[in-house]
Amino acid sequence: MSGHQDGRLRTRWRRATRLLAAAAALCTGSVVLTAALTAGPATAGVGPAQRVALAAPAVTSVTTGGAHTCAISADGGLWCWGSNYGGQLGDGTTTNRSTPARIGAATWTAVDGGSGHTCGVRTDGTLWCWGSNFRGQLGDGTTTSRSVPVQVGAATTWARVSAGPAHTCAVRTDGTLWCWGFNRTAQLGVGDDPYVATTPLRVGTASNWASVSTGFAHTCAVRTDGTLWCWGLSSDGQLGLGTLGSQTTPAQVGTAADWSAVTAGYAHTCGIRSGALWCWGENGYGQLAVSGSYRTTPVQVGTATTWSRVAASGDASCASRTDGSLWCWGKNASGQVGDGTTTHRSAPVQVGTATTWTGGLAVADHGCGIRTDGGLWCWGDNSGGQLGDGTTVQRPTPAQVILP
């Protein structure tokens, strides 16, 4: 019974006799006792804040933008919060929000946040983008910023999307790959022309793309055959091709055919091969978790072969293992490593002791992760309210975010 319903009942019975009041009190006591006995240690005796957390909607997907966060709840609802200077929250304003707010009534299957824009796929397969659009990264044929979602073309076969600082790429259900936005360093994979694309351009002729990830000025993607391909700027070796410079169209990284995941940061990249974790590119903050200033080809991180998920953005990286543990490393000026400090880390450090980090994972100057119970936890920079706790106070360790 909800508190609201209970209040109405108390009003209705306020004029009852003392005997009935006593009986009602006795019944209430029985209900409380029964609840305490049946709830067990998981819920009995919890405080108000814990009860709110237990009742919060479960989260199935999360993304961290430059200073904003968006998440999809189990019912398909889209929630966003944090910095909103370009309209990247999609709520029709440019006002920052320090707590989650639902964006419209549509249902969504995927969402990804760039520096100042956000894109998502709805359950009907349509693709929508919103926020900053000065380089055409919204894909709506203009360079006009939008504070509410606008549809990208008319296709209803979009499967997943990745939003970078000024360009966006997405994969359709037919395995084709499309990119648009800023192309100054050939990060769209279609050559060095056009300089800006305001609508999606198909990347090559392959139709077996499985996933894609957009960095600051480079892009990497995995095909269904397990091969890894990268293109764009390789100022620090972030393409993994063994050279510095630029690559105008997709080029295969090595010859391995067992890549299952890839994630592109500012100028570094990480990926998973048969459970082993590999990173390459710029390493000024230790974001490769290996020694040296940069690496132009993938180098394995440690010897573990139980990595299941990896995320990188900016100059930090996080990854979870099959045992449910969470590890982060790299730049930590805002506490985005989540280890309780602001010390940069050149090797993975475990985030707390929880072994329930098996859901979504995202990191930028702040990080967020989903646990097995659908609970969402965030940490790091909070200058725009992107941690969703109602404040702008930085947090170097995870704290749970409660969707209303």
Q: How many helices in DSSP terms?
A: 3
User: Which class best fits the helix and strand makeup?
Assistant: mainly beta
Shape assignment: globular
Distance between the termini: 18 Å
Q: Which percent bin holds the helix content?
A: under 10%
β-strand percent reads 35-45%
- Which regions contain 5 or more consecutive residues with pLDDT less than 50? 1-44
Rg from alpha-carbon coordinates: 23 Å
Annotation, overall tally of beta strands: 28
Task: Describe the 3D structure.
The structure is a single chain. By secondary structure, this protein is mostly beta strands. It is 10% helix and 42% strand. The chain is built from three helices and 28 strands. The strands form seven sheets. It has a four-stranded antiparallel sheet, with no helix packed on it. Strands 5-6-7-8 form a four-stranded antiparallel sheet, with no helix packed on it. The longest helix has 22 residues, at 18-39. The model is unreliable at 1-44 (pLDDT under 50).
Describe the structure concisely for a colleague.
With 404 residues, the protein is mainly beta. Helices cover 10% and strands 42% of the residues. The strands form 7 sheets. Strands 1-2-3-4 form a 4-stranded antiparallel beta sheet, with no helix packed on it. It has a 4-stranded antiparallel beta sheet with strand order 5-6-7-8, with no helix packed on it. It has a 4-stranded antiparallel beta sheet with strand order 9-10-11-12, with no helix packed on it.
